[in-house]
UniProtKB/TrEMBL annotation, chain B:
Alphabetical list of Gene3D superfamilies matching this protein: MetI-like (1.10.3720.10)
Entry similarity comment: Belongs to the binding-protein-dependent transport system permease family.
Record has tRNA processing as a keyword: no
Protein name: Carbohydrate ABC transporter permease
Domain ABC transmembrane type-1 per the UniProt entry, residue ranges: 67-257
Primary location group: membrane
UniProt keywords, alphabetically: Cell membrane, Membrane, Transmembrane, Transmembrane helix, Transport
Amino acid sequence: MAVLTRLRPSRRPDPRPGLARPAAGVRTHDGWWAAFFLTPQLAALAVFLVFPLGFAVVLAFMRWDGLGAKEWAGLDNFAAQLADPDFGLAVWNTVKLALLTVPFGLALALLIAIALNSVRGSGFYRVLYFMPVVTSSVAVALMWQVILAGDEYGVLNTSLARWFGVDAPDWLGDPDWVIVAIAVVTIWSSLGLNVVIFLAGLQTIPPQIVEAARVDGASGLRIFRSVTLPMLSPTIFFSTVVAVISSFQAFDQIYVLVNPKHNEGARTIVYQVYELGFQDFQFGMSSAAALILLVLTLLVTLVQFAAQKRLVHYDS
Amino acid sequence: MRPRQVALHAALTLGGLAMLFPFAWMLLTSFKGVRQMLNNPLDWLPDPWRWQNYPDALAAMPFGTAYWNSLYIAAVTVALTLLTSAMAAYAFARIRFRGSEVLFVVFLATQMVPAQVTIVPLYLMLAEFGWIDSHLSLIVPAVANPFAVFLLRQFIRAVPVELEEAARMDGAGRWRCFWNIVLPNIRPGLGALGIIAFLTSWNSFFFPLIFLNSPELATVPLLLSQFSGERTAVDYGLILAGSAIAVVPTLIAFLIGQRRIINSMAASGLGGR
């Protein structure tokens, strides 16, 4: 080290001790090299993400069908969307889907992860539960279509009728039930991912802590409440944020499982954006709906970050 | 085994069957004819086995072309993503420059914007480029990946700086350090990211649905949705044969690499911790 210091006397102390250590010649001011290494990603982000976002904001205040001239529309698009019963329905369905998939999906995943953490040979189950995660959402939707169909092809309803005499609703055709059906399929297909994330989180809990609690006479439930849950809370928080965001963006499975064109009960905000933009060619209107979705997503995420301060436990 | 273990195994197996059932039903139904589905919808086994559904599905749609399209689009996307995001991650982890912290936060913030919000302007822009109904529309925009930069930055920060110091003493430049020292040391990170990026591209549906028109350009998920969209429920045997053609090879690849795939996805779920 003495040699290094002698050769590079201008070395500055690292302002953030504990992070990556300053090293002669490795972390120096080097603007041109930084620019070189950053340019490809930076350019891609600017062109394909930042610019379209700005463009979306401008479009949202315009009336434009893609062919004629753009016309300034002020807040008309937002007002039209907020007054449109279709949009109201889309927001309600989106919220309903999140309220069904996030709590039930994560609770189920947590239970399974805890069970997996305490059995031998969990690798086999891990593979089994993970299979839907790597399966194309289109194929998942088609697989579930034959199970949930309301006619004689639907194996679920024909079984219920034959064996239990139950006259079940047409899950995919009935506007009142379709979100429940979509939620079941969503939970099924994302369960494995949440399970392995929780399992990885559980495995970071030092066994000594659990052992100490057990020696002190804590019951299984008490250990769960006072050790497992607090130590897992950062992982649970992270998964909740991700699950809410992805539920707000759900499109693929809904589009294939029940085209909302045929069942209004499946209309979500993303479908609304898609229909306005690519079926009706109302680009301004579609962008306005998309921006409302963005604001909603940000608001819900902010609320979650505010709530985590009281609910999530971080070490030190 | 203790009774507690038995009960846990029983519950996990029951759950596992629920995960397996849709796959099994897809495979079984893919060999059934219309008459059997109508008359005995609860029959488990096909009777007779209608193998013809598979040649029919393959003849109706260019699944071979779609497989090639999906495969090479995913491969090119992965290669570009790995290279560019490792470069950016290196800059954030190892090079001091003015505004580094601010720029990194901006990077992460862009990740909050869902693709659906920018879809209309993105479409209009790609149309200007002449990239609509071209695979470029699926590959190039997918390279912008702040999450990948974040993930690889975590890995690079775990590489001892001393390795690079030594190389620099020996006269290696920035690029040599990056290429010969850093990259080989973050191989697990690159592998994990590669798997995630591959699966994301392979299963992507929203972008191909909007950006592609020509059947011969379709990716596997897009082709599958068109295939089922053209048919009525009567053709379930055929539709599910098509689904099986799309799903089974992916599942086999997954089973071969399951340990690495699952671990990669779990690590990314923890935010690269």
